[in-house]
Amino acid sequence: MIKILSLRKSAPVHRSSWPRTAQIRLILCLAATAASFGETFAAAIVEGKIALPKNHTAPVMSKRYEIVTQGGILSTNPPLAVVYLDGSFPLPAATAAPQIIQKDMAFSPALLPVQAGTRVEFPNLDSTYHNIFSYSPAKRFDLGRYRPAERPIPSVLFDQPGLVVLRCDIHEHMRGLVLVLGGPHFVLTNAEGEYRLEGLPDGHYVLKVWLNSQTTLERMVELKDGVTLKVDFP
Amino acid sequence: MKFRLLLSFSLIVAAGVAHATDDAIDRIEDALTWSTAHDRIRARLSGTLELEEYWLPQPAQGTIYTEERRVSAPRLVLFLDAQAGSQSYFFAQSRLDRGFDPGEGRAQWRLDEYAWRITPQEDPRFNFQIGKFATVAGNWTARHLAWDNPFITAPLPYENLTGIWDGTAAPSTETLRHWAYLDPATPGQSSTTDRYRVPIIWGPSYAIGAAVSGIIAKFNYAVEIKNASLSSRPTIWNDVTGLWRNPTFSGRFGYRPDERWSLGASLSTGPFLQPSARPTLAAGTTLKDYREVVVGQDLSFAWHHWQIWAEAYEARFKIPQVGNADTFSYYLEIKYKFTPQFFSAVRWNQQIYGQLSTRTGAAMPWGRDIWRVDFAPSYRFTPHSELKLQYSLQAGGNGPHYYYETMAAQFVLRF
To answer: Highest-confidence range of A73-77, A223-227, B201-205, by mean pLDDT?
Structure first.
């Protein structure tokens, strides 16, 4: 609310020197912006803990015909979950593109939640080629083979909600996930399953927890400005 | 009919269940991966199910042994990859099929590869490997498996049968030319004698032995000692006695200026006759005198959706009572990915034979020159399934005609 008031106060500064139609457009624009900011910076909070799956996969790199061994043991990723507010929200404003790097023959992060309309960059930090591709219905692409020094950094616009499975055409063991969501309110849990989702708008929503391609949990929540709601998913 | 049935079956299966099973196959892959000791010891079982169908001319191309015009070659391949820390790596490949090369043999289960690799230090400058594994020579072995190979058949140097027999020493140029179907050509000869002939390199050459290899800055090297020459047939690969009595030495020196380019030079030398050929040797000679010497150059380039490979081999079969039977073979292979799921490859292959002196003193070629162009479009339905088609037009070679056409289809399911 403070943000909204301060923006409304700033509008009259321009009023005297602008034509009336322009003034109306500006007020409407600022009102829309303020409403959007009001939603983003509202103080409703949801936090809690998710019971994460215990299992994890330790990938094994095939080096049968790569006679020279490169790299040591591949890193393992603990299971994480994505907690998000389901619903229809405005498209994200243009911001710095999040990145999924390819380093030590693995995707990092191995799981990235983004809002639909987000462009994600895929820099290659290994000293060898990678070839990222996905045949997922939500996004089908193939970036081809590219070097660490490739500029601009190869990127993909994820414009449809859904799960996108990333793979490397050269390194069979490499697998990553981009979870494309409809809204901007999401967070990745830590390895213990703890999460805290801040800046949520007032109202009734469905709070969802994405655990894996087979399991998504959900619960109805009522969010109120200034109230921290505790929601655990056992 | 079989060909069409296979195509229809593959397309229906692939289109119908591929996407539905994709996630399930990922979960199967996870289930077939095992680890312990805080993930320091890991193992993974994987594989491919391959359904191949060939529509063939007669005589059939390369190492495909059949008198039929159509032949099916279903194959189940299982891989085991295991590592203990970063210093120890083991891999194995076993196959259930109708023979290493497509044909009409009975179903058989083979252990085609097994090897243990030790990397004593963290950096990759030195590795030691022992077991039964693909040759280090050239650059084709790195992509010879069905999923990685944009073609269904091997390039000419790896499958085109020369006039050289490995079970009998050629006593004269005339005999060698007869074995190469040159003079005089006998109708139907190829169907019986093709099984005695050998190419320059027999496929990936899964012979038994040991290798050292490493990377030093932009250079890499690999040297191996094996029980069989590069031309040796699969049945010889398991005979470990050759390792002690008549070893073959091969090596490759490579230079990689950046990720795009890879250049290499290979050398191999070893006896090409089987031990059973001893009674046919010329007086005063041993198996070691009948050597195959191969000098090779290879090049590869990759950038975005382009991949290019080329190899050239000069091979010499030393035959004491005949002379040096020389042949030169090369290929250029280009692959381009048109869409994320559709790609095509084209390959130009050629093999040229040298000349040998006959009893009359005339210099005569000891084989028929051959060229072949292969074209292979492929479609990947999912990250785990693909369908490849191949059309080959060959000129020259063994048969009574000049041009030969071969078609093939291959459906691969990877897990």
So the answer is: B201-205
> How confident is residue A200, by pLDDT bands cut at 50, 70 and 90?
very high
How far is the alpha carbon of B95 from chain A, nearest alpha carbon, in Å?
Answer: 16
**Residues of chain B positioned with their CB less than 8 A from the CB of A167:** 383
Residues of chain A contacting residue B134, judged by C-beta atoms under 8 Å apart: 64-65
* Of B93, B214, B307, Cβ closest to residue A68: B214
SS3 at position B277: helix
- Pair (A159, A63) in one structural domain: yes
Query: Are the beta carbons of A133 and A142 closer than 8 angstroms?
Result: yes
Q: Which among A58, A72, A129 is the nearest to B86, CB-wise?
A: A72
Nearest CA in chain A to B337: A144
Q: How far is B282 from chain A (nearest CA, A)?
A: 39
Q: Where are the alpha helices (DSSP H) in B154-301?
A: 173-179, 189-193, 241-245
**Closest Cα in chain A to B92:** A64
Q: Which residue of B has its CA nearest to A146?
A: B304
User: What tens digit of pLDDT does each residue of B14-65 get?
Assistant: 555 666 678 888 889 889 999 999 889 999 999 999 999 999 888 888 888 8
We report the CATH number of the domain holding residue A214 as 2.60.40.420
The four Cα atoms B202, B207, B212, B215 give a dihedral, to 10 degrees, of 40
Token readout for A25 is 């457009």
A59 to chain B, any CB pair closer than 8 A? The answer is yes
With tokens 């497509």, the residue in question is B102
Residues A55 and A143 reside in one and the same domain = yes
- B198 beta partners: none
> How confident is residue B187, by pLDDT bands cut at 50, 70 and 90?
low
A residues 172-201 lying closer than 8 A (beta carbon) to B: 172-173, 175
Question: Which residues have CB under 8 Å from A228's CB, separation 6+?
Answer: A44, A45, A46, A47
- What is the amino acid identity at position A32? A
The SS3 assignment for A188 reads strand
Q: Please give the backbone phi and psi of residue B384, each rounded to the nearest 5 degrees, phi first.
A: -120, 0
Is the minimum CB–CB distance between A71 and chain B shorter than 8 Å? Answer: yes
**How many Å apart are CA B30 and CA B41, to the nearest integer?**
15
**Beta bridge mates, B78:** B47, B94
What is the extent of the structural domain holding A175?
45-230
In this structure, are A24 and A75 located in the same domain? no
Residues A53 and A31 in one domain: no
Residues A133-185 have pLDDT tens digits of 999 999 999 999 998 888 999 999 999 999 999 999 999 999 999 999 999 99
Helix, strand, coil % (nearest 5) of chain B? 15, 50, 35
Nearest to B35 among A58, A133, A148 (CB): A58
Hey, are the CB atoms on A61 and B81 less than 8 Å from each other?
Answer: yes
> Domains in chain B and their CATH numbers?
2-410 (2.40.160.10)
Number of domains in chain A: 2
Indicate if A91 and A22 belong to the same structural domain: no
Task: Mark yes or no for CB contact B26/A165 under 8 Å.
Answer: yes
Q: How many residues does chain B have?
A: 415
CB A52, CB A79: distance < 8 Å: yes
Nearest CA in chain A to B42: A60
A83 and A67 belong to one structural domain: yes
In chain A, what residues touch B304 (CB-CB under 8 Å)? 144-146
Give me the interface pTM, i.e. the ipTM: 0.87
Contacts of A176 in chain B (CB under 8 A): none
Q: Which residue of B has its CA nearest to A61?
A: B81
Q: How confident is the model at residue A33 (pLDDT cuts 50, 70, 90)?
A: very low
